[in-house]
Specification:
By secondary structure, the chain is mainly α. The chain is 53% helix and 8% strand. Helix 1 packs across helix 2, helix 1 packs parallel to helix 3 and helix 4 crosses helix 5. It is globular.
């Protein structure tokens, strides 16, 4: 195998998520994700799609904790719910997996009534931090 085909090691949940969104080298996206979600939430997003139970098993956390994290991300516009009449709902990142969709959801969430882990933030505050 050539050195050009050797994947770089995954640094953290944010890095795993930027890779899933097809922007593996984007430090800007990495910083945005760190501003709008906890490492645990980034890990959940990277493991989606799945039900609360399946995601809790993947990340080895209590389903009640995962349910609260999913609820916060759902109301922040970061994930979508896919109801299943035959069983529990599935949760996923916006489909298709593309940064344009995820970015629109994040910017709407940040500019609205979204309260990230560090307190109330507006979209302008976020961009100011990235300078």
């Amino acid at each position: 195998m050539s050195i050009w085909m050797t994947p770089l090691p995954v640094r953290d949940a944010y890095d795993m998520l930027t890779r899933k969104l097809n922007y593996p080298a984007s430090e800007t996206l990495n910083r945005i994700l760190k501003s709008v979600m906890s490492p645990e939430e980034a890990q959940l997003l990277a493991e989606m799609p799945g039900t609360i139970e399946a995601l809790a098993a993947k990340v080895n956390r209590d389903p009640k904790v995962v349910a609260k994290e999913i609820e916060r991300m759902f109301f922040a516009g970061l994930i979508i719910e896919m109801p299943d009449p035959a069983g529990p709902a599935m949760y996923s990142t916006p489909i298709p997996y593309c940064i344009e969709t995820a970015s629109d959801h994040m910017m709407w969430a940040i500019g609205g009534n979204f309260v990230p882990k560090s307190g109330k933030t507006t979209a302008q505050d976020l961009w100011d931090r990235l300078e």
